[in-house]
Amino acid sequence: MLTKSEAIYERSCRVIPGGVNSPVRSCKGLGLNPLIAESAMGDLIWDADGKEYIDYCCSWGPLILGHSHPAVVRVAQAQVAKGATFGVATEIEERLASKIISLMPSMEKIRFVSSGTEATMTALRIARGATGRNKIVKFSGHYHGHHDSLLIKAGSGAFYLAASKGVSANVIADTIVLPFNDLEAVRMFFRSNSEVDQVAAVIVEPVAANMGVVLPIDGFLQMLREETKRVGALLIFDEVITGFRVGLHGAQGLWNIDPDLTCLGKIIGGGFPAAAVGGKAVWMDVLAPIGEVYQAGTLSGNPVAMAAGLETLRWIEQPGFYERLEAKTIRLAGPILETIQRTKFRGCLQRIGSLFTLFFGSSKILNANDLSNLDRELFARFFRFLFERGIYIPPAQQEAWFLSIAHTDEHLDYTARCVNSFIENLPSR
Ligand code: PMP
pTM score, two decimals? Predict the structure, then answer.
């Protein structure tokens, strides 16, 4: 007799490849079926059988206020009642754009799209259109969505692929992949590679979060800013995850860097599909209808997503929001770090604000090369251990855990106890 979740999964597999609409939701390789959600509230998610989980995936980042935040639900419902989509301009798009620009002043203009993939795809097209160059530099293990140019040595669910099948050799040839956090190799590329004058843009996750959380080493982002300026390439910060997650002004605020273009997503839609590319007017105005770089979208700037995003930003702008979120994360991460140190467990917890990854099998991850040492079998056991105890974390080790302001102390303490008991009971460390 199948459970309701099992039956849904079985039926889904017949009509949806792998039963999931994004491969990262699959628990293939972990020996489990994927979680089939029925509803969620705050830091909890319930599956189709009514089983409850504390959620540390939080829809992969948008839900910084937690699931079904009453204020976000209210504004979204009110907007749906007025009209879910119009296909013409609305005031709420201007209001969200103005709010984002006030918080991230490297941007003078913004174009809204519906997914992070569209945002980075548009950013590359702007860069190519504006510079007349074709090559793009990205970093190994960084994920920027699933369009062709950037699905090469990518992170997240694509991590174990050199390049996705179906991406043409010509596109692969236009994408140059460099090692993140390797100051010397990257500087050398900019100083001596013959292709440097063909580079339209360098795109980077300023804090990598799709090969697990990996912070930039001192001087790395500054070096990218200086070198791109020197060679006439645009610097694109992909802040789809870090934007409004690591702080109110994104990673660019923390590192005090002015990128030419910024990609945002996740939090700015408050749980609805919204993303954006923004930057200096001189770059943004190459877009149609002003310029000749074409980009469009039926649901771009969707009013429900704009309303939910604006309401989310209104909450996170409240004084003390990020301090409270940080304190919550430390409440969970602190005891785990202590256990790691005390038990000499071969692993590490890398964190910035409410974003972190617990790695198994390596004591420091600086770039994608370091990930080859990770213990995938141990992670699979860890995932199942937590899952059986009602805790849902992203089902892959090279992903980030996301906390929300709705995570309760009780749930954080329970999670810390479970994680610690797993580590403490490992037979050989
Ligand atoms: N950039 C980054 C840094 C991301 O983490 C993601 C998705 N997790 C994307 C782009 C793509 O966003 P989407 O899934 O909305 O297309």
Answer: 0.97
